[in-house]
Amino acid sequence: MISNFEFSNPVKISFGKGSIARLSALVPEKSSVLIIYGGGSIKKNGIYDQVLEALKGFHISEFSGIEANPHYETCMKAVELVKEKHINFLLAVGGGSVIDATKFIAVSSFFEGDPWNILAKGSSVSKALPLGVVLTLPATGSEMNERAVISRVSTKQKLNFSTPVVFPKFSILDPEVTYSLPLRQVANGVVDSFIHVVEQYLTYPVNAKVQDAFAEGLMKVIHDEGLKVLTNPHDYDIRANLMWAATNALNVWIGQGVPQDWSSHRMGYPLTAQFGLDHAQTLAVLLPGVMTYMFKDKQIKLAQMGEVVFHITEGREEERAHQTIVATEAFFKQMGLKTRLSEYGITSDDLDALTTPIDKLGWKLGEHHNIDSSTAKEIMMLRI
Amino acid sequence: MISNFEFSNPVKISFGKGSIARLSALVPEKSSVLIIYGGGSIKKNGIYDQVLEALKGFHISEFSGIEANPHYETCMKAVELVKEKHINFLLAVGGGSVIDATKFIAVSSFFEGDPWNILAKGSSVSKALPLGVVLTLPATGSEMNERAVISRVSTKQKLNFSTPVVFPKFSILDPEVTYSLPLRQVANGVVDSFIHVVEQYLTYPVNAKVQDAFAEGLMKVIHDEGLKVLTNPHDYDIRANLMWAATNALNVWIGQGVPQDWSSHRMGYPLTAQFGLDHAQTLAVLLPGVMTYMFKDKQIKLAQMGEVVFHITEGREEERAHQTIVATEAFFKQMGLKTRLSEYGITSDDLDALTTPIDKLGWKLGEHHNIDSSTAKEIMMLRI
């Protein structure tokens, strides 16, 4: 049975070629805008110039240097700037890291006390600076959801928070801005968004036909177009389909009313915090482990997924489910990602350190809440 | 190529068993609420009692008697009541007709001049009373969009309008309230929502993979569950899937960036206004005509639709496309709907009167804007 749910998603999407010019209409008049971005690639590929051109007449400040897996420490510096410059609108120009950082800056600018508690203690927030997005890397879905993940360098922690007040007011999705992305980032985005769908789908059947159909459609699109983009990086349609699919993969619409399993995501956080793996790299390694270890729980949906995404139609359900795991790992390899911990120099000696954070946070992961630190260790052992 | 688009949909959905009780939290505190409903079936099936129970403590007024294909004249009476009772929140309890009427009442309550101009002249509106919905009949998608269709008895006209200010603040979707619906209404809802998807899908391919996948998924769900509901009217999952599919069929999400063809809808309006056919009945008659007359334009998508929805995989594309038309008409018949004008006593002598409104309104229908009144007449001739 589909569970009860209550949800809305008010983000305005402005999609298509040249849509950065829409900023002039989408940012509230007379705003004092802080443009937040990463390492400066937007200055090389022309996006920065397009943004400034569209925002002529607004009062503009800038904050650059948001890292991949954005740092709490960096966000706190931006909060100081927000207060100093009396900023009243934040514009994230970047991918998931920049958007997530902007969300955290948005709530921290009003939070009384240490904003780290929003992440570490789940302190509630009721107010945030309004924010908009110019998306440069389709992957995380952060442009159309109310979530963010932040890392703290000093303690090697990576934590998430979620609140409706950080829904972007708008997100601009121009597929052409993705032409210049490095291949590694494109491949990471494909794998990340594919796995977002898997995490809202690959549990047990509850007869949620619409949610299943949408999830299966997205997995198929991301798989098919993901393989094509490697050899056709300047094809508008492929880029447009991947961009729109990635947004729909985590605007939290396909997951309403169905069981979910975010264990690969959560188990992956320490791999990033302790070993510096890209977020998508952690997922490509761990998801096949979760699929294998939890095989019995996921067998029906694995077979269903295999038929739609990989055209696996021969054999008994169990065999088809196994073939789906093989095909999934092969897909990640085709996209150029590694799928074993050992390929990153991680050995069984590292697993205690990688799984103790799960204990500390008291997490019981998976759709049946039965993955604790010792189960996580066994899953990781399968991926050495 | 996918066209540029800009869109948001802020409607909060509260879905599931018992969700009418959520009214007490969803209606703004201290509101003076006008409950708007139809012929009184909600008093027989217990929905009315659930609504009143949930709204204890609010100041409540009522307006009943909204017709199928809601009348302008009736809406104007409700507007008088709104002003007299100082209503500041409208609650539609019903299906598409009640919701559409409520939207028109919401804008007419603030409109200066004759509100008919909103429909007849497309007069712009910038303000509406806030409204919420308790959905009793899944069909039109009105619970999650910004559109409404209103009929004027005195002139036998049926016209639509659309404005973001009439997006419901929330819509409550409890599948259990649909158990008691008469079979004819259930079947109408299935056909109506199926055709909503067709109208956003069955044009020419633009390589919009996500939009296509979502549309195909919805058509398949509505087709499969629609046939099941006839013999399993009290199956929660079937009702839940149909309800959620119908909302997604016209929350205008699947149609972003793709060509659309609403000609069956528009050509059907005079059939309702002049001959009293249910909205879905008009569609079941006309859609096969549009498919046949516009065959060459729609052949590729017809074949694509046939494969996913009806498992038509044998033969050349043209043959598969033809089989899809046959299967679509057969589906409507299986749902108990007539598919010929003559079955309603309409003859070729009536076609001039049925198509002149298209001329009067200057409509050029279809994805290529090439269906005028004479083409419409030829299409209808195919359906005698």
Reconstruct the topology from this structure:
The structure is a homodimer of 384-residue chains.
Chain A: E1 5-15, H1 23-26, E2 32-36, H2 41-44, H3 47-54, E3 59-63, H4 72-85, E4 89-94, H5 96-108, H6 116-120, E5 131-135, E6 147-152, E7 157-162, E8 170-173, H7 183-199, H8 209-229, H9 236-249, H10 263-275, H11 279-293, H12 295-310, H13 317-334, H14 351-360, H15 373-381
Parallel strand pairs in A: 1-8, 2-3, 2-4, 4-5, 5-8
Antiparallel strand pairs in A: 6-7
What do these coordinates show?
Chain A is of the alpha/beta class. Chain A folds into 2 domains: 12-176, Rossmann fold, CATH 3.40.50.1970; 183-381, Dehydroquinate synthase-like - alpha domain (Dehydroquinate synthase-like, alpha domain, Up-down Bundle), CATH 1.20.1090.10. In chain A, 47% of the residues lie in helices and 12% in strands. Chain A is built from 15 helices and 8 strands. In chain A, the strands form 2 sheets. The first copy, chain A, has a 6-stranded parallel sheet, with helices on both faces. In chain A, a hairpin with a 4-residue loop joins strand 6 (147-152) and strand 7. The longest helix of chain A has 21 residues, at 209-229. At the A-B interface, strand 1, helix 8 and helix 9 of A face strand 1, helix 8 and helix 9 of B. Strand 1 (5-15) of chain A pairs antiparallel with strand 1 (5-15) of chain B, so a sheet runs across the interface.
